[in-house]
Design goal:
The protein has about 450 residues and is α+β, with helices and mostly antiparallel strands. The chain has helices at about 30-35, 55-65, 100-105, 155-165, 215-220, 230-240, 245, 280-295, 340-345, 345-360, 360-375, 375-380, 450-455, and strands at about 5-10, 25, 40-45, 75, 80-85, 90-100, 130-135, 140-145, 200, 220-230, 265-270, 270, 305-310, 330, 335, 380-385, 395-400, 415-420, 425-430, 440-445.
Amino acid sequence: MKVKIESSRIIKPCYDGPPPSTTLCIPLTPFDNANYDGQMAVIYAYHPPTPPNITIKRGLQKVLSVYREWAGRLGKNDKGDPVIFLNDKGVRFVEASVNDPLEESMPSTPSPVLLTLHPSLKDVEELVQVQLTRFSCGSLVVGFTAHHLVADGHATSNFLVAWGKACRGLEMAPLPMHDRTIFVPRDLPKFEFQHKGVEYTSKKPIEIDDDFDGSILAEEVVIHKVHFTTDFLAKLKSRASLSLNEDIRSPLDFKSDQIIVSSPTGTSNGQTQPNKMYSTFECLVAHLWRCITRARVLSEFETTQVRISVNGRMRLNPRIPNNYFGNLVLWAFPKSKVKDLLNEPISYATKVIHEAVSKVDDRYFKSFIDFASYKLKEEYLYPTENINPSPANLEVDSWLRFPFYDLDFGCGSPFMFMPSYFPIEGIMLLSPSFKGDGSIDAFIPLHKDHLERFKGNCYTL
């Protein structure tokens, strides 16, 4: 696929009234600083008819007036603390074309070809980049990149939905909450949990090369897309919860938007309660953890773990509004010996995941705020999020609850949505299928010599 760049320029926010000051800055929070220090990219595809580029451009300028952080720049203030400068320097806006129909050109799974459908992620000053690529059939592909230190997936998806509303002339509600000063450490810090070696390490990470096209990684790693139907997911949940009551040895006083589990006796206040299954997310991660571990042919005495993002908006007390704009994620690290993971029933793996996630609660988040506020500078620590998983470990990013398919520029929802090409073995991504029926697509980077073994068991229950 040959992509022709028609134009590349910087566009800035467009305000209804007098523009605000461009000398302000926002300090990054402990959650921002602990996150991945780099750009991430996603790809959207739309069937014709689609609005003209000028409509999408003006909508972007409009939404940037509300989400000013994206039009700013990262830097440090006079004290040397990392900040976002609200200087309105703008975002990169690229227009491109392909002289072929999309069906004949665009891959349905992540491959190096996708790198031509969004601006480069390497050595980028802008915090957001957009590329509009028009195909000869009239289809439109939107490549979007954003810096992860500014916002997590939840906040970024809210921005994208607001962008679509701006293009359609709608009110961009709910407006984002910008106050990043709310995460205040306690006067008497309480380091209740171990954070060194978890979110932070004394080991300086090796810089990740974002130029994947033609790299050694591209030669060794293939990104395999697996589609899980609703029927398969239902059977998986049933299997993973078969021995739920017998398997859980202590009650978990835990309930969230993501996971609900009944008591081990199935009773509450003397009344029998129906057995409630683990979440689809937990069951699918447990299944993939087992499948990938089996494909890797690890020693049964090795320890393997999964890094799972946990959204703090509903975990902190008092709750943080869903429209908070920034990063508010920590991680759970379920662990198991390979022997136990593969030989025990899948309910064992699901239980390990559930219990690890449940521990990342209000107390844990507040302990992290205290630790990050008091300990980082004196101990010279680095975020573990910038370190690739070891050969025995996994990291899972879930986009299952993000409204990415609601990015509507006036032509309806995209018919395709996927991450760009990111061949880092061990980092898998879960996304709702574009079919919109509750099925799930998993994008799994694997070493090529593990691929066939994985394919042989990924649909086996």
